[in-house]
Amino acid sequence: MTATATPTTPYGLAELEKERGFGGMGTTKARNVPQIDMSDFAARKAEIADQLWDASTEIGFFQLVNHGIPQAQIDEAFAMAERFFDLKEATKAQYPLLKGTNAGWEYKSQVRPSTGTADNKESYQITLPRMEKLWPTGEELSGFKVVMLAFERANWALGMKVLSCFAMKLGFPADFFTDAHDPLQPDYQSTLRLIHYLPMVGAKPEDFTGWRAGAHTDFDCLTLLHQKVGQGGLQLCPGREASGELAWTDVEPKPGVVTCNIGDMLMRWSDDRLQSTLHRVRMPREDEYLGPRYSLPFFCQANKGAMIQGPEKKYQPITAHDYLQQRIAANFAK
Ligand SMILES: O=C(O)CCC(=O)C(=O)O
Ligand SMILES: [Fe+2]
């Protein structure tokens, strides 16, 4: 992938082109997703950074254990997300996703370039500076804002620890990415997303041919994903092996882990050394659990003004704003 390979987009976003044409079923293959122990972080940082680097240059996915976000806080966020999605449609519709903002509620509106069809899900996104008039009221859902603001910040803090390891390995100052994701700036654009994949109980056989989330890579630097045990479906396919028929690996939800993946923004920022890996959420098979699936991803997306360029200057510099806008525009038609 080079900066000049894709003249169809102004910045040569080969990532956009890459995403098209990965919509087929493919095969499956067992692969190891490395687990990385974050305990005693300050003292073990060099060792942790080596492990993060190896996982991210190879498979692009890893699972954090002893990550410091209390399980009770994760459970509380899931419970609150379920209560949000249980609200009446008319209530949720008061807080609509506005195009290009990553804030607010949408229902089956995200069309992936890989599949050309809408993901079978609804979602609510929290991007802090853009939440005016987008929070449900206390009468509608008491406690929602408190729980989500705390959870957003807990995920940010964990994400910044991981990114500080990559900063070290790339030769940037330790807090380089923390400064680039500063939540106190008005151009902060990291996003907490609550996702509800619709239940498939009683669905027609043809409904099972679609996708809960079509194959894609993430736009951001780093994604931290919380899954619920028993609600599987996430699959990955490493880019370096992505030629011919794709072979997909299930990433089972496990207790106590936060599943992480590198996004396109950090791949570019690392001159393609860190791998942004293709993933998707498949439908359950008709003999599997058919209830809803909830997931909570947090996307570390650099502030709008941050200038993205790797230490080797493989690509032209681009602001995080321009970069994200192009990716969002390709996903939300309306
Ligand atoms: O719900 C999941 O497990 C994955 C969601 C995802 O990949 C995304 O929202 O980018
Ligand atoms: Fe994703």
Question: Can you describe this structure?
Answer:
One of its GO terms (molecular function) is 2-oxoglutarate oxygenase/decarboxylase (ethylene-forming) activity. InterPro entries: DIOX_N (IPR026992), IPNS-like_FE2OG_OXY (IPR044861), IPNS-like_sf (IPR027443), Iron_ascorbate_oxido_reductase (IPR050231), Oxoglu/Fe-dep_dioxygenase_dom (IPR005123). The chain has one domain (14-331): B-lactam Antibiotic, Isopenicillin N Synthase, Chain (Jelly Rolls, Sandwich). Residues 1-11 have low confidence and may be disordered. α2 packs across α5 and α3 crosses α5. It is 28% helix and 20% strand. Strands 2-3-11-8-13-6-5-4 form an 8-stranded mixed sheet. The chain has a 5-stranded mixed sheet with strand order 1-10-9-12-7, with no helix packed on it. A two-stranded antiparallel sheet has the order 14-15. The protein is of the alpha+beta class and 334 residues long. The chain has helices at residues 14-19, 41-58, 71-86, 89-92, 144-170, 176-180, 264-269, 320-329; strands at 27-28, 35-37, 61-65, 104-107, 121-126, 191-197, 213-216, 222-227, 234-237, 247-250, 258-262, 278-281, 293-300, 307-308, 318-319. The relative contact order is 0.20. It contains 8 helices and 15 strands. Bound molecules: 2-oxoglutaric acid and fe (ii) ion. 2-oxoglutaric acid is lined by residues 193, 195, 213, 218, 225, 227, 234, 279, 281, 295, 297. Residues 216, 218, 279 line the site of fe (ii) ion.
